[in-house]
Design a protein that fits this description.
The structure holds two protein chains of two kinds. Chain A is an all-alpha fold. Chain A has one domain: MetI-like (MetI-like fold), CATH 1.10.3720. Chain A contains ten helices and no strands. Chain B is mainly alpha-helical. Chain B is built from ten helices and no strands. In chain B, helix 2 crosses helix 10 and helix 3 packs across helix 9. Classes of the chains: A mainly alpha, B mainly alpha. Chains A and B meet through helix 4, helix 5, helix 8, helix 9 and helix 10 of A and helix 1, helix 4, helix 5, helix 8 and helix 9 of B.
Chain lengths: 258, 245
C-alpha cells in the first residue's frame, strides 16, 4: 500500500503556509494591541479596521479597482516605452548620449509637484493618474533594458550575424531574451513605483481611488479609515508584485537572475 | 570633456531651446507651460524665499537620510548576525515595506503633527528600507567558503563581520545610499505638500492652490538642482570610500 496515494500538490502546501502566516500575523496584531493597551489613535485593532471596510465595502472596492486600473495602465505603458527606449539607446549610442542625461534629470523632479501640472494638461481623468504612474516606471525599465542588452556577449552576436541574421532577428532571438532577467528586475521595482504614482496622482482633486481615501481619512483624522486604506494599498501592492514575480518565474524559466 | 559628456550637455541645451521656442512660439499661457527664461527670472526674483525653503527641506531630508542609513545598516547587520531573529522579523519588515511610502505619509502626519518630525520620519522610513534591503543583500553575498576559511583561523563572528562581510557588502550598501539621495528629497517634498510650516513642498502646494505655475516650476527647478547636488556628493564619497569596486 502506497504511503501517499494522493500527494499534496506543492502550490496547495505553499498556499496553506501563506494563509497560516497571514492568520498568525492577524492574531499577533490583534493580541498586541489588546495586551499592550495601544491607543486606537496610534494603531487600531485589526478587527476594527476590517469591520470598517465591511461597513462600506463599496467605497473601498471601487477605490481599489480604480487605483488598480491606473496602476496597470501606467505600468504597461512604462514597461513598453522603457523597453523600446532601451533598444533604441542600444542601437543608437548618439541618441543615448543626447537623451540619457535628460531622463536622469527628469527623475529628480518630485512627481507630486508635477501632479498638478499633469492634471492641468490631461484633465482630471484616469489618464492623468496613469501618466504619473508611467513617469515613475519608464526610467528604471529603460536603464535595465540597456544594461541587459549591453551585457550580451558580442561573440554570440557575431555568430548570429555570420549566419546571416538580420538586426531584428539578432534583437528578438538573442539580445532581448538575454536581457530579460535584467528587465524583470526593473519590472518588479516598477510594479511598486507605478502604485505610488497612481496613489499620489489621485491627491489632485479626484473622487475615487485609494489615494483619495487616504487623503480624506487624514483630513478627518480618521485613523481607522486611514489604516483601512493602507491595508488595501498593501494588498494591491503585494498582489501586483507577486503577479510580476510569477510572470518572471514563468517567462525567465532559466532563472539567470544576477 | 569627453565626447559623451559633451553630447549630454548638447542634449539638455537642445531641450531648453526647444522648450523656450515652443513656449514663446505658440504663446502658451504660463499655467500651461512657462518659458525657461520666465522660470529662471522667477527663481531669481524669489531667490530669498526659495533659498530658505530649500534649506528647510534639505535639513529635513538630511536628518531623515542620516537616520534611515544608520537604522537600515544597523538592522541589517543585527539580523545577519542573529539568523533566528531574522527569520522572525523578516515577514514583518516585508509587510511594512509592501505599503507604498506615499500611503504612510498621511499616517505619519497624523501621528507626528505638521512639524518637521513627520517629514524626517517619512524620509527615514523610505531611505531606511532601501538601504536595509541592499545592505542585507550585500551581507548575504559573502562566499561561505571564505567565512569557513576565516573561522578556521580562529576569527569570531564580529571579526568576520568587520573584515569580510562589511567590505563585501559596502558596494551594494553604497549604491543603495546613492539611490536613496534623490528619494529622500522627493519624500520630504511629498510629505510637505500634505501639510507643513515651510519648505519647497509647502511653496509648491501654495502655488498650486493660487494657480501660480511659474512658482511651481521654479520650486521644481530648485528641488531638482538640490537632488542632483546631493546625488553627486554621495556618488563622489562612494568613489572615494569604495575604491576597490
Amino acid at each position: 500500500m502506497p504511503v501517499c496515494a494522493h500527494p499534496v500538490p506543492p502550490w496547495l502546501l505553499m498556499g496553506a503556509r501563506f494563509i497560516l502566516g497571514l492568520v498568525a500575523a492577524a492574531l499577533l496584531w490583534e493580541g498586541a494591541v489588546i495586551a499592550f493597551g495601544i491607543r486606537p489613535h496610534i494603531l487600531p485593532r485589526l478587527s476594527t479596521i476590517l469591520s470598517a471596510i465591511a461597513a462600506t465595502p463599496g467605497a473601498y472596492w471601487s477605490g481599489f479597482l480604480r487605483t488598480l486600473l491606473e496602476t496597470l495602465i501606467g505600468f504597461a505603458a512604462g514597461a513598453i516605452v522603457g523597453v523600446l527606449n532601451g533598444v533604441m539607446f542600444f542601437r543608437a549610442p548618439v541618441l543615448r548620449d543626447l537623451l540619457f542625461p535628460i531622463f536622469v534629470v527628469s527623475q529628480t523632479i518630485p512627481v507630486i509637484a508635477f501632479g498638478a501640472l499633469v492634471v492641468l494638461w490631461f484633465g482630471n481623468t484616469l489618464l492623468a493618474k496613469a501618466v504619473i504612474a508611467f513617469y515613475l516606471t519608464f526610467f528604471p525599465v529603460t536603464v535595465n533594458t540597456l544594461l541587459g542588452l549591453q551585457s550580451v556577449d558580442p561573440r554570440q552576436t557575431a555568430l548570429l550575424r555570420s549566419f546571416g541574421a538580420s538586426g531584428r532577428q539578432q534583437m528578438l532571438r538573442l539580445q532581448l531574451p538575454m536581457a530579460l532577467p535584467q528587465i524583470f528586475v526593473a519590472l518588479r521595482l516598477a510594479a511598486s513605483l507605478s502604485l505610488v504614482g497612481a496613489i499620489v496622482g489621485e491627491w489632485f482633486g479626484d473622487t475615487t481611488g485609494l489615494g483619495v481615501l487616504l487623503l480624506q481619512a487624514m483630513y478627518n483624522e480618521n485613523v481607522v479609515g486611514l489604516w483601512a486604506a493602507i491595508l488595501c494599498a498593501a494588498v494591491l501592492g503585494t498582489g501586483f508584485y507577486a503577479l510580476v514575480a510569477y510572470a518572471e518565474r514563468r517567462i525567465v524559466f532559466w532563472g539567470a537572475e544576477q | 570633456m569627453s565626447r559623451r559628456a559633451l553630447r549630454g550637455v548638447l542634449g539638455i541645451a537642445l531641450l531648453l531651446i526647444l522648450w523656450e521656442g515652443v513656449a514663446r512660439g505658440f504663446a502658451l499661457p504660463s499655467y500651461t507651460l512657462p518659458s525657461v527664461s520666465e522660470i529662471l527670472l522667477s527663481v531669481w526674483r524669489q531667490r530669498q524665499l526659495l533659498a530658505s525653503a530649500a534649506w528647510f527641506t534639505m535639513a529635513e531630508a538630511l536628518a531623515g537620510y542620516a537616520i534611515g542609513c544608520v537604522a537600515g545598516i544597523g538592522i541589517a547587520v543585527l539580523l545577519s548576525l542573529l539568523p533566528p531573529v531574522r527569520r522572525g522579523m523578516m515577514p514583518a519588515m516585508m509587510a511594512i515595506n509592501s505599503v507604498p511610502v506615499a500611503a504612510w505619509s498621511p499616517l505619519l502626519l497624523l501621528w507626528l503633527g505638521v512639524g518637521i518630525a513627520s517629514k524626517i520620519a517619512a524620509v527615514a522610513l523610505a531611505v531606511g528600507f532601501t538601504v536595509f534591503l541592499s545592505a542585507l543583500a550585500g551581507l548575504d553575498r559573502v562566499d561561505r567558503r571564505t567565512i569557513g576559511l576565516m573561522r578556521s583561523f580562529g576569527a569570531g563572528p564580529l571579526s568576520i563581520l568587520w573584515r569580510l562581510r562589511l567590505p563585501t557588502a559596502l558596494p551594494l550598501i553604497a549604491s543603495g545610499m546613492r539611490v536613496s539621495t534623490v528619494r529622500s528629497l522627493i519624500v520630504a517634498i511629498v510629505t510637505e505638500m500634505l501639510g507643513a510650516y515651510g519648505g519647497l513642498g509647502w511653496i509648491i502646494y501654495q502655488a498650486v492652490v493660487q494657480i501660480d505655475f511659474v512658482s511651481v516650476w521654479s520650486a521644481i527647478l530648485v528641488a531638482s538642482a538640490l537632488s542632483l547636488a546631493f546625488f553627486g556628493l554621495i556618488g563622489a564619497i562612494e568613489r572615494r570610500v569604495v575604491f576597490w569596486r
